[in-house]
Amino acid sequence: MSALLSIENLATGYGPSQVLFGVDLELRVGEVATLLGRNGMGKSTTLKAIFAQLPAWQGEIRFLGERIDGRPTERIAQMGLAIVPEGRQIFPNLSVRENLVAFRDRRNGSASPWTLEGVYALFPRLAERAGNMGNQLSGGEQQMLAIGRALMTNPHLLILDEATEGLSPLIRKEIWAVLARLKAAGQAILVIDKYLQELTRVADRHTFIEKGRSCWQGDNAALAAEPGLWHRYLGV
């Protein structure tokens, strides 16, 4: 199985302040992978580097076998990389339907692309709220809309930054169920979240990051064999 996204020895930062000192991550076609760590360890900085919002000071980032570090952000997105950002960032003055159709594309060349009807089937609540403005939705509904909007681009890789942050347990459960359905359909996903137990039910492999460095990588079996990892790298 080939690597869809690979990051090797990535270093970057903000101005003179270095944040990443050596991040490695690999995600294969059809896999769900995680990037885990406490707040401030470099997870969001890694995502910014993937989308070229920060330059790679060293190392390289490859997507679909091509170097993307240094490419324009919009070109990277057009290659089939989509993000559900922390804070959702939906358009508050557009309706649910308008938010979705504004991003309609077929970036992965799928013969069965995501459509408005497909997203509504995945998230029936969005169908019920189709005419509502973005700022009239609850936090959970906004997250559903942000995921649906990303899927409408038909990406090769879907990235979720803080996938269930601030959501109720019921909505979190619904989001995890959706991710499981997407995985079963072959969608590659990279997830940042803190709910490790739920992540192990859907993810294939995990990367822990601490102080800007990848400190552990492995699959669910390897993670289960080291029960102290959660406390060491995620505990407060």
Please tell me about this protein's structure.
By secondary structure, the protein is an alpha/beta fold. The chain has a domain at 1-79 and 198-236: Rossmann fold, CATH 3.40.50.300. It has ten helices and ten strands. It has helices spanning 43-50, 73-78, 96-101, 116-122, 124-128, 139-151, 169-184, 196-202, 220-224, 229-233; strands at residues 3-14, 17-28, 32-36, 58-63, 66-67, 81-84, 157-161, 188-192, 205-210, 213-219. The strands form two sheets. A six-stranded mixed β-sheet has the order 6-7-8-3-9-10, sandwiched between helices. Strands 2-1-4-5 form a four-stranded antiparallel β-sheet, with helices on one face. The chain starts with a strand and ends with a helix. The mean pLDDT is 93.
The global form is globular
Mean pLDDT over the full residue set: 93
Strand order of the largest sheet: 6-7-8-3-9-10
Biggest beta-sheet profile: 6 strands, mixed
Q: What distance lies between the first and last C-alpha atoms, to the nearest angstrom? A: 36 Å
Count every helix, treating DSSP H or I runs of 4 or more residues as helices: 10
Low-confidence stretches: none
CATH topology-level fold name of the domain at 1-79 and 198-236: Rossmann fold
* CATH uppermost class of the domain at 1-79 and 198-236: Alpha Beta
Query: What would you give as the CATH superfamily of the domain at 1-79 and 198-236?
Result: P-loop containing nucleotide triphosphate hydrolases
Class from helix and strand fractions: alpha/beta
Question: How much helical structure, as a percent, in the residues?
Answer: 25-40%
CATH architecture of the domain at 1-79 and 198-236: 3-Layer(aba) Sandwich
Q: What is the β-strand count? A: 10
Radius of gyration: 17 Å
Write the element-wise H/E pattern from the N-terminal end onward: EEEHEEHEHHHHEHEHEEHH
Which strand-content bin applies to the residues? 25-35%
